[in-house]
């Protein structure tokens, strides 16, 4: 739910685009200017390349003509085909290529270690910024010392030390930024970059525009800032506004920076909208889930290494959200602390958390499988740490009676803990925890969820059942498994799943249909139904390597006792179950044969055990030879079904959890004994 934190990484990368471009340009210009003033000879170009290479620690070459118009008050230099080589081991041969470099500088200022550039112009520059997987950056120049002219001017430590630039114009530029660790690849064509420093803010506005790709997605940027003179003016905040489009994601930022070089004192308004939250990972490095269309806006400030944000209005699909918190970029992975509140949260919008297809989006291909098999991206989980609380006043989950949720998400170097979980469901509660350990290559899941006093009636919302079912039930789900998707985790799961009910009532249609009671079921077909009291219902399953096997499967009412056994294969998503109903009173026209359930979990087949039905049908055929009226005798059930030992069975299940399993709510006499 870190949906509202694109700001810190976005601003940082925007600053890399703007200031690294300026810094490397000035670095090149500074090295050349220093060489020109100290190397006055006929073979200036060769000597300048040698001197510049020595100062940079990289090869500096000028393959084309070099023209110098000397003037002590302002010397103009025009150089063709300027190149600075890349760091060793990187893909691109050169870090910087400039077809035409045209600049003026004041030579006498260099004698005092200051670089003043009245004009800078570049035609078709190409700048490649690369960060390797080990963290090394090709824009680090170890050979530069703090006393070097180029280093002190191009890489200022303070805002006031930034070089004095009058006017800068860059056309037909190309900026490439690669980050192997974050798997980022930006290829930006600069339509124009211009700025001035005459002191007239209206005319001197710094601007940049371009388009290209970011990790394969369409990328466009338009940015404007204060004048170049304002950039080094420590007496006032520096204004910066940017519009960024990445595929279907749009980001707008407008604010001020107290120190733009250090990204300090930020005070900005931010708005972001797009079709999928997961796409923001390329801008933020925050692992976000797939989602429907979203939109957010709010306030962003920064003090030291901590960004603070307030997003009062946001939407994801049909869900409303509000969030506030901090993001600390001073830590190794960054740390997000956030509180999220929602008046109405739709589970369809949050399905991406568990690999489900968010409503209205084709983020997951259609499948016949019941459990999502979307692979977890562990690299994303390890990028940032977080502590997020989520509180939804109303939780909307189609087909499930969820009502509200309050949960805390803790992510620490790939270990995600969702604890505590407090959800209101069916007028009862669901509490517990979910742990997902992504620190190893094979993630592990540990889940322990406790259900208390869930209303059975709220699971049967159809008009024909709403007044015919009541009572409450509870249970516990304790499983652990490993895998890269929810399907893989369940396919390897071990643990126990138990559900228990006592008291209340249930529609006889449900009970009698399970026993194929023709008399009772026919009455339902004629529009008449009644209810029967429930003594207890118990389903207790052992889970071993993805296989659920029923230890106890009983549903006991005052009319019928249904017993059975079931095997559920979570790996193959199949079920093999057998249910047998034993009526407690005589009932005519009943085919009391076991009911079977088999096949895929998503579409199981309901059938009748052939052997039992064949035996009864055979007996009826023999009797029919003697007397046609006697043919109905095999289908008359004389009753005799016995009550289950509800109390003993419930205590048996509770003992498997060391007693830490809620007893079902009791309202009837047999049920009270069971509890």
Structural notes for this entry:
Helix content is 19%, strand content 45%. With 675 residues, the protein is of the alpha+beta class. It folds into two domains: 7-251, no CATH class; 442-663 and 665-674, no CATH class. The chain is elongated and about 115 Å long.
Task: Give the total of domains.
Answer: 2
- The count of strands amounts to 31
Query: Which stretches are low in confidence, meaning pLDDT under 50 for 5 or more residues running?
Result: 1-17, 38-42, 145-154, 516-527, 615-620, 622-640, 665-675
Query: Overall mean pLDDT score?
Result: 75
Number of DSSP helical runs = 14
- DSSP helix fraction: 10-25%
Quickly give the structural class.
alpha+beta
Question: Could you list some keywords that capture this structure?
Answer:
675 residues; 29-stranded mixed sheet; two-stranded parallel ribbon; 14 helices; 31 strands
Give a short synopsis of this structure.
The chain has 675 residues and is an alpha+beta fold. Helices cover 19% and strands 45% of the residues. It has 2 domains: 245 residues, no CATH class; 232 residues, no CATH class.
Which helices and strands appear, and what pairs or packs with what?
Blueprint: H1 7-38, H2 44-56, E1 60-62, E2 66-69, E3 75-85, E4 94-105, H3 107-110, E5 116-131, H4 149-154, E6 164-179, E7 184-196, E8 206-214, E9 217-225, H5 228-231, E10 238-246, E11 249-259, E12 264-274, H6 281-284, E13 294-303, E14 306-316, E15 319-328, E16 335-342, E17 345-346, H7 347-350, H8 378-381, E18 385-392, E19 395-396, E20 402-412, E21 415-425, E22 428-437, E23 444-455, E24 470-482, H9 486-491, E25 494-507, H10 508-514, H11 518-525, E26 531-544, E27 547-557, E28 560-569, E29 574-583, E30 595-600, E31 605-608, H12 610-626, H13 646-656, H14 669-674
Parallel strand pairs: 5-6, 16-18, 17-19
Antiparallel strand pairs: 1-3, 2-3, 3-4, 4-5, 6-7, 7-8, 8-9, 9-10, 10-11, 11-12, 12-13, 13-14, 14-15, 15-16, 18-20, 20-21, 21-22, 22-23, 23-24, 24-25, 25-26, 26-27, 27-28, 28-29, 29-30, 30-31
Helix pairs in contact: 1-2, 10-11
